[in-house]
Structures are given as structure tokens and as C-alpha cells.
Amino acid sequence: MTEITAPKSPVTVAEFTEGIREQLKYGQGVTPEQATPADVYVASSLVVRHYLQDAWFKTQQDMVNGNTKAVGYFSAEFLIGKQLRNALLNAGMLDQFDAAVEGLGFDPQDVVDSEYEPALGNGGLGRLAACYVDSLASLGVPAFGYGIQYRYGIFRQEFDDQGRQVERPEYWLANEEPWGHVDYNRSQKVSFGGEVVEEDGKKVWKPAWSVRAVPVDYMVPGYKSGRVDTLRLWSARSYDEFDLLTFNKSEYLDAVKPKVEAENISKILYPEDSTPQGKRLRLEQQYFFTAASIQDVIRVFYPGQSDPDLTTLPDKITFQLNDTHPVIGIPELMRVLIDEYGYDWNTAWDITTKTFNYTCHTLLPEALEVWPADLIGELLPRHLEIINEINDHFLEELKGKTRDKDKIERMRIVTNEENPKVRMAYLATAGGSHVNGVAELHSQLLKDVTLRDFSDLYPDKFSNVTNGVTPRRFIRLANPRLSALITEGLGTDKWLSDLDLLQGLEPLAKDDEFVKKFAAVKQANKEDFAAYAKREFGFDLDPNTMFNSMIKRLHEYKRQSLKILALIAKYADIKSGKVSVDDVLPRTVIFGAKSAPGYYLAKMTIQLINNVARVVNNDPDIKGKLHVYYPWNYNVRLAQHLIPATELDEQISQAGKEASGTGNMKFALNGALTVGTLDGANVEIRERVGAENFFLFGMTVDEVDALYAQGYHPAVYYERDPRLKAAIDMVADGTFSNGDRNTYAPLVADWLTKDWFMTLADFTAYCDIQSDIEALYRDPLEWNRKALLNVARTGYFSSDRAIQDYLDNIWHTGPLA
Ligand code: OAK
């Protein structure tokens, strides 16, 4: 058994200081007197990396030599957020850093703030992947996160003078980035296009062009585990800098074209989230990173072997496909096994299906990726052949399982039509061992609806792993005050690696003095957030109002419209005198959300929210009782500031549409109460915190289905509830568009005639629950008691528990010895 020690860390502040001085001198070429906070940031990051290096080596060596199966987490997105503080925490160097930096005359906050946030994801799926690699390393499990190092991450959101979203490029690599280690010597070749020919009775793919996949490695230090895993993000480079022949003719742009085209592959993250797309470049990206990763795994686990025994691959590593984006990896592994290593079909299929598993993260049918077979054939002709063959074998297998011909037809991986399509979710389900959803309700709906035929015939493949979030980033780093109070209450800080220990806070909810301390933490966090919002956005938040947040992607199903309509209804009531402003509970509503650039109604909703903010915040009749703020460019950093300061969290999607949600977990763990529907993980959060500590409203999945079946007419609800009518009329009459009735006409028309996610049908219930919320808020002790119970009872939603579930039920592996 190998003995594991915690990562070697600079025990003294003096050592950390000396490390920074050295890096400033030899790395940055500046003296401490000349250094800027950004220089100190780079130097400090390199010091941390330096101290983690041995543990990183050792983890890799033990992984290759050890007897524990590793995990390869394949994801098109890793929304990792800022690295420095997280690495310091996990490596046990936070205090040394603070003291060293202060000793050199810098404010640690300024240094940390110099880091540019890598925004390599759109939302939930990408942030989950980042939490999962943190937990894998913290549990001591050998793992690779495999993805793409996009040159441009999710766009930087700005608002124009009309309140509309404007997308700006997010060039996060503009400054020195000390975390990514570019490893040119371990690059891989990834090829595209061309044709398949027969040579000696064998299929041979003759690609037309290739790109060089260069790994950029990020350390993933485990929290107190002594282990450092690897996040390997591929960057696309050209093999040919330029075409000399063309260049000689002085056609510079043409000459560099191949380089530009190759490098385009990793240039930009697609800004879609749960919305359809079908871009060739996206397929290129998907193949690029999965192909490079599969070759890399063979290089790492079978070093120097020209004839490796790849039947052992499933014992060495298991691949988790984070939604369908990396599913092209399945035919790629088949191709590698058959064409490059000479395995027969059945052996290759056995290895492949034992190696892959698939997690689905959506319930929206339009978000399930389907690729035109033609496009796959053009880019990856050999893969299309293999996919067709997988389809044929699969249909044969189905014939042995059922006589229901319609069912077999419905389950085709490749559709039977003039322009056939490849259903990636079906390919993933057929080509792997396990399929899981991300919350109990979601996993159930996958079995009952989305993948019903598959679950009928392969019931054992299906399971659930309810999502989780890392307590290191989202409690300890985001909310140091609450962390200190939890540690005080429990008498230990072990909860950071065993979040179930939070249950120990339960008795303290009866202790008024403790509850008051808890309330004081929240109040201080609100004040901090107000100062931050002033600094960053120029907003004037009043920390003596209720802080009510809704942060997530802007999507119709998430129903930001419901929130804004309810707010407008309240405003209308005050304006019309139905409600006296003096009776209104002071509330600050904070939105954070990006919309996909081409999503018309979502973008119009952003504009509406901004204009409601403009009107309401400046209306003297409101006497400051209602405020709306929409900080632009919602990202991980903003989440870390806002979540600890929030008292009421909105999880108000239409039941049956939000696969899980992870913001809901972060808020509950930071002592916010939730107003929500029975959707995604809300269901499990409510079960755990208790119905009396959760504001439930709205239709259930069954009620939604019944209403659709019966025929949904949103205008009926508009006529029925005068509050709703007043709110919609106010949007329609130009109150929020300087009198222009056209601005929001498409949104109003959609609400009244389509309202696909039944915002109007849930409006009355949503407004009604507000009186419960406000009555409780008027009793601060009771509110905080319930909020504390939310903290005490949500330890289950740690990503450590989620990863343990994957280890036990799907990956069948564990920590290194
Ligand atoms: C993105 C692209 C395609 C399909 C799904 C997504 C996505 O981000 N889904 C989100 O995943 C989160 C993590 O599992 C869930 O919490 C969200 O409910 C889900 O929308």
C-alpha cells in the first residue's frame, strides 16, 4: 500500500513570501516594489502550483501503476471559475497566502481579483462538471476531466441604453494565465474528412485534413486528500503555419487559411444552453476533444506499447459522457479498436459498452442532439459507417427482445428517412453501460417519457444520481462567515469533507442565540454584497430589505417572466392604490442571467426586466419599497458573492422541465429559503428540509400534462386574475417602453396565445404564496430558524455524495490505495 501524505505545503509564511519573491524575480521580471496585484497573482499561483507538483506526479503515477480504475469525465464544458483561492484552500495555504501577500504590501483581495475568470461553460452542466472534478480529487479518486480550452468562453454580457443584451467576446486568455500547463510534447493528431477505401479487405480511412490537439493541463487539487487530479483541456493548433506556395504569391490571407481553420475548432464556446443547434463546427469540436482524449488515455495507460491489450481498458478507466456532446467518442473508440488495433467487431463493442456511461441533463426534447447523417459522413466518413453498423446490430438485438415492430422502429439510432439523422442520446444509451438522470424526478421522467422504450427493454441500465455542489467553493470560499459559524456550532471543520455533518446544526435551530448569530451572518453578507454591487455595478442596494434572487440562464421554461410579472402586478397594485405602499414589505429583487444570442423571446425578457428596474426604482410613489437590479454578465464570481447574501431564492420552472438545478442547492446550503415548484431537485430539497421550510406553489407534472391534454388557453388566466391582467396590460401599454406599445408586443402576444411553459396558469398560485413568504419574513427569528434548518438538512447535496453515488452504482471504483 502506498502511503499518502497531504500535499507538501509551505509551512511558514516566510516560505510563501520567498516563493512569491522568486517568482516575481525570475518569472515576472519585477521587484516586489514594481509589482502590480496582477503580478503577485501570477507569482502566487505559480507558488501554489510548485507546491502541488509532487502530489500531482504521485497521483498520476499511482493511477497508472495502481489497481484502482480511473474516471475520465468527458465534457464540452468545465465552468471552473477562478482558481487561485480554490487551490489555496484545497492545498491548505489560505492563511499563508494572506499573510505573505499582506507582508509584501498588497491587499489579498486585490490580488485574487486580478484573476480573469475562465468562463468555459454556459451554465449548469458546465458548473456541475467543475464541481465533480473537485470532488473526485477530494475523494482521492484518480481522474481526468477531458474538454476543450476555448479561446473565447461564454460571451461577456452587457446591456445597451435600451436594456438589451449585447454580447461581447470574452477573451479570457488576454493576460498571463498561470494555471494551464501547455504540453506540446503530448499533443495528439485529430483528422477529419476524406474517404474510406478498402485495402486488403480492410476499411481504411483516408482523412483530408488534420489538426494538432495540444493538451493544456490544469491541476485539480483535492481538499485535504493529498491528491491532485488533472483537467486536460485540448487546444487546436495547425500543423502547417501557412502554405508556402500560396504565400509566395503574396496571398497572405489565403496562405494562413488552413491555420485559421484548424484553430477555429477550439476558438469559441457555443453559447447555447438547452437550445437546438446544428453547426458543423460544433461537431468538429465534439470529435476533436473526444478523439484526442481517447488517444491520450491509451498513451497514458499503455505507455510505449505498440500492441496493447485493450480488452483491459474497462478495468483501467471508465468514461462518463456529460450529456450527448461527447457521444461521438463511442464510434471513435470502435474505430480505434477495429481499424487501428485490429479487434473484431464484437470484442470492440464489448470493450466500448463496458467503458462508456451517459448522463442526460435535460428534459427538453429539442435539446437532445440529433445530427444529420450527411454531415457526419462529410466530416467523419468512417464513423458514419460504424454508426450505421451499430444501428444494424442494435436493431437485430432488439428483434431478440421484443416483437413490437413499432417500438423497434422508434428506437432506431439512425432514422429511416430520406435524410437520415443520428440520435446521439440513443447512441449513448445503446453504446454504454449506464444511463442516469440528474435528480429523482428527472431520472423517472427519462424512464417514463424521453427514453421510455429503452428503459422498457434495458431497465437495468437506468439509474439516478442527484446532482451535488462542492461545499469548498460554494460555502467555504463564498461564505467565510457562515463557514466559521458552522465550524463553531459543530466544533469541527470536518463538515467540509463530510457535508452530512451539517445535521449536527439541527439542535441549534432551537437555540435563539445561535439563530441570531446566523441572522447576523446573513446581514453582514448582505452588506458586503451591497458594497460589491456598488463597486462593480454602481447599484445602491438597501441591505435592510429582503434580498430575493433569481440567477440562472434566461430561458422560457425557467420562467423569469413569472417573477417579473408578479413584481409588475405588485407595482400596479401600489400605483392604483389597491395596496398602500406603507404596507409593502421592502424587497430587493436581483436577477442574473444570460440568454443565448439568438433566442428572441429570452432577449426580450431581459430588456423588459431592465426597463421594469428603471421605472420601478425611480418611481417616488414606491418609496423605495421595491427595487429591481440586474447585474450584467452573471458568472461564477457573481454567484459566489450573491448566494451568501440571498434570503429568498426563486426556483420557479414549469414542473417537469428543469432536470435538476444546482443553484437551488447552493442557496439552501447558504441559508436562503426557496420559493419553488415541484421540479428537478426542488422535490428532494423540499423532502429534506421539510415542507414547512420551503415555499411550494404551482402545478405538478401530472397537472401540467392534464392541462396540455385538455387544451391550454392562457388568455383564460389573464381574464380570471385581475392582478395578472393589470401586469400584462402594463407591459402592453408602454409603461416600460416610454409609451411605445410595440416594444414588447411579441412577448405579450406569446403570453396570451401560446405561453408554452404555462406561466399564466401558475401566476395566481405564485402571487398567493407571497403573503406566506412576507408574513414569515416579518418574523426574523422564525425566518432565520427555517433558513438554518435548510443548511442543517441539505448536506446531502454535496458533490462528494453525488460522486460517491457514481462510484458505487455506475463506475464501480474508488480512491487510490
Ligand atoms: C446544456 C446543454 C444541453 C443539455 C443540457 C444542458 C444543461 O446545462 N442542463 C442543465 O444541467 C444541470 C446539471 O445537471 C441541471 O442542474 C439543469 O437542470 C439542466 O438544465
Automatic annotation (TrEMBL):
Cofactor: pyridoxal 5'-phosphate
Annotated GO biological process: glycogen catabolic process
Keywords: Allosteric enzyme, Carbohydrate metabolism, Cytoplasm, Glycosyltransferase, Pyridoxal phosphate, Transferase
InterPro entries registered for this protein in UniProt: Glycg_phsphrylas, Glyco_trans_35, Pyridoxal_P_attach_site
Pfam families tied to this protein: Phosphorylase (PF00343)
Modified residues (N6-(pyridoxal phosphate)lysine): 666
Main location: cytoplasm
Localization terms from the record: Cytoplasm
GO cellular component: a single term: cytoplasm
Entry similarity comment: Belongs to the glycogen phosphorylase family.
Name of the protein in its database record: Alpha-1,4 glucan phosphorylase
Keyword flag Transcription: no
Catalysed reaction, written as an equation: [(1->4)-alpha-D-glucosyl](n) + phosphate = [(1->4)-alpha-D-glucosyl](n-1) + alpha-D-glucose 1-phosphate
Function: Phosphorylase is an important allosteric enzyme in carbohydrate metabolism. Enzymes from different sources differ in their regulatory mechanisms and in their natural substrates. However, all known phosphorylases share catalytic and structural properties.
First-level EC class: transferase
One Gene Ontology MF term: pyridoxal phosphate binding
Stretches that traverse the bilayer: none
E.C. no: 2.4.1.1
